[in-house]
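User: Sequence in, structure out. Go.
Assistant: Echoing your sequence, followed by the structure tokens.
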Amino acid sequence: MKRILPSIFCVSVLFVSLLSYGQMGRSPAGTSSAPPPGAGAYDPHNGPAGMNAPPPIDQRPQDYLAQDPKFNAKIQKMLPESVTPVQVCDGFKTLGDCVAAIHASQNLAIPLAELKGKVTGKGSENLEKGIHALKPDVDAKAERKKAWKQAERDIPVSN
């Protein structure tokens, strides 16, 4: 009898533990409290037609600039009056690429048209290589990082 009692106790504890473990992460009434698959630090809100919109920094410049006049005005302050943000960003894949190029151009006194020519269009290079081609005496990697940090500060986190 002395040996059976501890065995029953161990089996009971194991059974209750397995039941408890099976209930972890579940909320009552069958609702899920776990985040949806793919949710991370940036969980975009629903955009048009229920689709998830990417953050503004990853959107096409023409799409974002057309919907945010306040941001347009902010970018216009960094450009000559004869050029609009839409014109400058034409050819860039993302808004972040465009704004980072604007900052790199200002930081290094590189004509924006020349830098844009290096990083967009046929035979284009990334921003770091474009900076190096136009200003070989600077640390292009550090300048690219600096320009991207500035762009990240300028661009809103969500729509």
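User: And one key feature?
Assistant: The two ends are 71 Å apart (CA to CA).
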